[in-house]
Amino acid sequence: AVGVTLRREVAPQSQVAIHSFWEYATFGVNTFLFLSVGLDTRPEALQGHLPGVGMAVVAVVLGRAVAIYLPFLLLRLFKPAETIPLRWQHVFLVGNIKGALSIGLALGLPESTPAREQIVSIAFGVTLVSMVGQGLMLTSALKALGLFQQDAVALEMAEQRGKLIASRAAHVELDALHTQGLLPRAAYEHLRSEYQVNIARAERELRRISEQHLAEGAKDLLSMRRRLIDAERTALQGARRNGLIPEATAEEMLAHLDARMLDLEKVLHGGHASKDSKEHKAS
């Protein structure tokens, strides 16, 4: 309820700041926890608790299975229309990669707690298995369940974009070599025409894919708009720091950029643009 209220009432600039803060906070807390475990846990101590780690991993998987399959079974009995396919339930089991909370609780135990070292080692071992083991097998599990399907259109577009980027970079380097007198005129003309053909071909293929697959083209356009908004924000912040535009003007323009960015994120994730952003675009 609090999150829904914040998205509806808080200004876009504040929403962006809140999201950024919690992303950095999550990264910082996880880093601190694992550094603390590394300083507090000796490798030889962890090796001595491998049987306990194994039993704890089994217990965690069994408990997770009960917590996943039992509620969905009850949901199927009472509300069959809202049930979730079984193979997606398997994803909840395999993809539930966690551990920071258990490590934090274990490290928070007083030094006088009986078997504290064993508890910390087992918590670290279970987290390590969860993050490394499950993380490595997740893609294979999704493929085995028939849920991992690569978008052929997106892959083709990415390949053509890579060719375009590489060819343009080579073209720029070629011009630099010619300007410095390191390349004969005949060789320069030959290589230049070759890379121009590659650039034109990649541009033509990207245009063809976008025209034939409108949804993928629209998604790609939205991603590019997001990068352009980031460029606008960087330029505005630099102009404000250098005193080229007043502080109030910069804040107002940055607020509009944040609103546009939030709307792009919503559209990319299947949502709808806000009314304020639509009015801003119309104006």
TrEMBL record:
Span of domain Cation/H+ exchanger transmembrane: 2-143
A GO-annotated cellular component: plasma membrane
InterPro entries xref list: Cation/H_exchanger_CPA1, Cation/H_exchanger_TM
Record's subcellular location: Cell membrane
Membrane-spanning intervals of the chain: 21-39, 51-78, 90-107, 119-138
Topology of the protein relative to the lipid bilayer: Multi-pass membrane protein
Coiled-coil residue spans: 185-212
Pfam families, per database record: Na_H_Exchanger
Family recorded in the similarity comment: Belongs to the monovalent cation:proton antiporter 1 (CPA1) transporter (TC 2.A.36) family.
Protein name: Sodium:proton antiporter
Protein species of origin: Corallococcus exercitus
